[in-house]
From TrEMBL:
Gene3D superfamilies: TolB, C-terminal domain. Belongs to the SMP-30/CGR1 family. The keyword Hydrolase applies. This is SMP-30/gluconolactonase/LRE family protein. Residues 14-255 form the SMP-30/Gluconolactonase/LRE-like region domain. The lineage of its organism: Bacteria, Pseudomonadati, Bacteroidota, Sphingobacteriia, Sphingobacteriales. Coiled coil: none annotated. InterPro entries: 6-blade_b-propeller_TolB-like, SGL, SMP-30. Its EC number is 3.1.1.99. Keywords: Hydrolase. One of its GO terms (molecular function) is hydrolase activity. It comes from the Bacteria.
Amino acid sequence: MKNAQLLIKSTCQLGESILWDNRNGGIYWVDILGKQIFKHKFGSGQTSIWNLDDYVSKIVLNDRHGFILGMQGMLASWEEATNIVKPIIDIPHENGQIRTNDGGLDPEGNLWIGTMHMDAIPGRGKLYCYKDQKLHVMLDAVSIPNGIVWSGKLPYTYFIDTFTNEIRRYDFTKDTNETAHYDVLVKIPSEYGSPDGMCIGPDGNLWVAHWGGYGVYCWDIHTGKLLDIISVDAPHVTSCIFGGPDNKDLFISTAKVGLHEQQLLKYPNSGSVFHYKIS
C-alpha cells in the first residue's frame, strides 16, 4: 500500500484547487466554503492565509507574479502581496444560487471554469471557456464540474462531472454545448468513491482525487485501466497536483464537509494537505 503523509495540518471545510507555483516553490489551495486562499512554502513550514469576500474555488497562475481566481459571479485577478481582487469578467450566478467550482488552463492558455448549484442540483451548472476576452459556454448542463486537463495539444479535453462518476474525453473541435462529442474513458466503480479533481502526472496519465475514495487514483490515459492508488487518511480527497524540484511530489487537498462526527473523530486530518513522493 502506498500512503500519502500529512504535510500541512488544516481544517478546511472544502479544500480544493491545489496548485504548485514553480516561481516561488509555493503550494496554494483554497477553502471554497471558508472563502480563503492558502499558501505553504514547501520545506519551510510557513503557511499564509488570505480572507476573501466571496466563494473562491479555483486558483491558477497568471503572469510572472499574479494569479487568476474562479469566484462566485466572476473571474478575477489576485495579487498575493496586497490581497487585491480585480474582476475580469462576470459569470452568471442566479442571485447567489450558482458558484464556480473546478477549472484549468488549456494548452493555448485559455481558462476553463465550471459552475454548479450551491445545493448540487443536477444539470444547473455550465462549463465555460474564457477566450478572446469572452466567456463561451462549452457544456450547457453539468452538475458538479471537476477535473479538467489536457495531455498536450488540443483537441482532446479530459473532463469530470462528478455526478456521472465518469472520466470523459471530449473533442470540442467537433461541436459544442450539449451535443459535444465524447468517449467515456473510465466509469468509476462505486467502491472507489467519486472522481473529483484531476491532473496529468509525470508519467502522462490521469491522477484523480476521489471524493469518498480515500485516495488519489492513477488511470491510464489511453486505456482507462487503473494503474495505482495513493492512499490518503481522509475520506474526501478533492484535488491533486504534481510539483516540487523534480515534479515528483504529489500534493493532495481534502475536505471536512459531508463527514459526520464519528468520521471526523476517526479521520481528524480531514481538511488538511497531504504529500506523496513518487519514485
